[in-house]
Amino acid sequence: MEKRVLFRSSWLPWALIAPQLAIISVFFFWPAAQAVLQSFQQEDAFGMSTEWVGLANFVNLFGDPSYLDSFQRTALFSVLVAGIGIALALVLAIFADRIVRFAMLYKTLLIVPYAVAPVIAGVLWVFLLSPSIGVVTYYLGKLGYEWNSMMNDSQAMALIVMASVWKQISYNFLFFLAGLQSIPKALIEAASIDGAGPWRRFWNIQLPLLSPTTFFLLVINIVYAFFDTFGIIDAATQGGPGQSTSILVYKVYQDGFKALDLGGSAAQSVILMFIVIALTVVQFRYVEKKVQY
Amino acid sequence: MVDRNPWLTFLSHAVLVLGVCIVAFPLYLAFVASTHTSEAVVQSPMPLLPGAHLWENYQAALLGSGKLGSNTTALHMMWVSFVVAMIITLGKIAISLLSAFAIVYFRFPFKMLCFWAIFVTLMLPVEVRILPTYKVVADLGLLNSYAGLSLPLIASATATFLFRQFFLTVPDELVEAARIDGAGPMRFFKDILVPLSRTSIAALFVIQFIYGWNQYLWPLLMTTSEDMYPVVIGIKRMLAGGDANVDWNIVMATTIVAMLPPTLVVILMQKWFVKGLVDTEK
Q1: Which CATH number is associated with domain B74-280?
Q2: What is the predicted ipTM?
Q3: What is the mean pLDDT of chain A?
């Protein structure tokens, strides 16, 4: 896309674009290139010398069961976060779209979690579900259900999934609501005249017409679960118990900053980069084509 | 609505009230905890109604009672968060307006290359390239500084794209009219384009402010001196002692205070916020 009318100047556009180019080269391209470079290198224990090791870092990673586990966990985690978050938000949006009274109030209250930092979301949920002082833990215990996310792997996973879904639900809700409101009223009315009830209208008209939104949210939620949940995990479980909630991003941090395995951490970064790029490509290809029936 | 089914309307309200209650419960409980003494909070179960210690807890949180084991106060950490969020927000909006203007309204060599170079940055969040970025910032001597906290987070192109999309919808006749009246490119930018972009700027402001305020991983790596901690980091630090040694009432008071600015921005600027979200992601 281009404008028909353009300004002419040989230096001005460069001056205008220079600040952005400068910042992205220093803080984006240079580090990204370093990550790729480092992923082919290995540093000795004292950081004295660096050795070119080819694909060894990658080979090590994929030979490392703990990395493969982390991959699996991340997949499970992101599917749960995206699936539950999208389903709940869809239900809320469908009902919110129906009503007029208090609509603004509900909407305002539902978007608050968007403003909450991931770490804080983690802190809030740990506070609810902490084994020793959590209120919800206490009442679960009364009901005969023992909750200890510090000992039990799947409960720890459930904890970070809940906190992550809670944080993301505002975003999903707003997009579904915007999507529902952009469906032409005439379609709904026509279906209604033909005798379709509310359930039928939802299932045969609204849901199919929401499919581009749903697909877009699916990609966004997966990216969110992959990257933006670092704070939640660091506050809620620190990757534990054991490694049971250490997803890929958390592992990059643990291996790079805690264990100081620069090569291995860089290789993990490069793999993550490929995953994001793949997700972005998928998003652009399919969102452009508009998934629809 | 097409048909008015009172039963369905009732169900809608019931579902939404339930949803709102579940969403609000963690926040409510945090508030309740911030109004009790620390002994009351750790007893099991803790009270579910607000207590009488609101004032002293918030005072202790904001001004630092020394119990936190740190030399900084929530007030100071809020200031750091605010400055960082503002630099990120205003910096991003400023450089993006300029570069989008260049990309849309000029023809210059390597334009497409520049465009794609900016476009690529959309794909990789900071989390993916933390180690090398850390190294670059350390080499530049920017650790523990506002520049180090904010510049790497400005390096992304969301805003540039939003402005580009918007500029493309601005009618060409405006440029022609401005030219006939003898306005140069910068005059056109300042007097016509920027005022027209007000809504987009407001929308971006909300989104970027929240993004900046809520940053965690990057400040966690970048800051080693306590007086450069943003408030989000400060809260996490208070929890380091384990359940028994944490003053949950103070932690929760700090949490509530830390959530206030972004929450207010979202609620008060709701209209632009929703528009901004929907537009940036198109």
Answers
A1: 1.10.3720.10
A2: 0.86
A3: 85
